[in-house]
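User: Here's a chain of 464 residues. Predict its fold as tokens.
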Amino acid sequence: MAEQTFDVVVIGAGPVGEVAAERAAKGGLKVALVEHELFGGECSYWACIPSKALLRPGNLLAAAKRIPGVPVGDALEPARVLERRDWFTGKGDDTGQVDWARGAGIEPVRGHGRITGEREVTLDGGEVLVARHAVIVCTGSVPRLPSIPGLDTIRPWGSRDATSASEVPARLGVLGGGVVGVEMAQAWARLGARVDLVITGPRPLPKLPQFAGDLLLDGLREAGVLVHTSSGLEEVSAVDGGTALKLTGGAELVVDELLVATGRTPATGDVGLDVLGLSAGDPLEIDDSGRVSAVDGGWLYAAGDVTGRALLTHQGKYEARVAGDSVAARAGGAEIPTGPWSRYSATADHRAVPQVVFTDPEVTSVGLTEAREGSADRVVDLDIAVAGSSLHADGYAGKARMVVDTERGVVLGVTFVGQDVSELLHSATIAVVGEVPLDRLWHAVPSFPTISEVWLRLLEEYGL
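Assistant: Prediction complete.
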């Protein structure tokens, strides 16, 4: 078998793997980047990028209709929306990403890489890649399918199918009220599909404050989504002309496609973890520098969804920067500094990871969404009703929440729900991560007339 030696071998060439490889290469190391599908990964071709390309036109059309005097039509042009999505994904051509890797001093390697020994990765063709210093696993996550009678008799859509479909389905069933479920339900409804969304609770996004789910429920219904709340899917069967769904309570539907969006799990099932005595399919637990804690010798690292920390692309890229830098520094013999604010420590998930749900209304949060049990924390809730929001859209409906540590006088978390509130989220992230005292935040004057005036109203409501 052919054998090549590198300083670092990165398995998985999505955005996370690309960043880890780039940081290690910038540190002077010889890096191989292994990918068995497309360089650019899930986010670029099947997740973040195409889903937002599908959502944006519908959000924009809805926004335009909320402003009198703007000449708009009644419906989107699906073919042009899908064409624009395909432009963003390059129609599955990853040549540009491969060229980028080579330009960054990284060796792109096509093939399925599995760990077969200490610092050793073997490709499906038999070639062996040996790493002098580290192997970094960045293989992401895969959809988790529930156990539902009959589901194995059809071919349900996963998230990839939902973002890459070439035609608008006439009837789409969606199971799951999480991010993928609500985003794809609204996107396809606005493109002309009849969409039935089945969720187990009374509202979507159950991990967020109730007002977030309630406002989003209104937005989904406004977009034409038929939401079946406090329900579930008991049985699936193939019938002439589609797929029959039996819902909790006895209701029945027939759809052309069924999107199962019931969560994701770390993609560690086929990486060779058994060789290391680890369980395939489990997340790789890491320390804050990215090293896998259960593997002796300190040579195995991981970043992104595969760690199970926070399944978000921006969090994964942040972890990848830390992992790549840590590998390069240690390879040079340096003792890296530790601590929550060290560039060699990925600690964001310990306190505040921002997240955006790109529906209409948008749902954003960072840090805590509720007061800590037994604490003196205070929750401040109010409507987003300022001059900026009134000008932004007629009938603007939004809400904001601020969670405050009253003993220290700092913000612990912020939730915004409303049209275009995602652009407010980074200011909230800075306030939370930077632990900006409220009496200092009072002097961060929001510009008039913008939606960011909600910061002033939150502080006033708190009592400043």
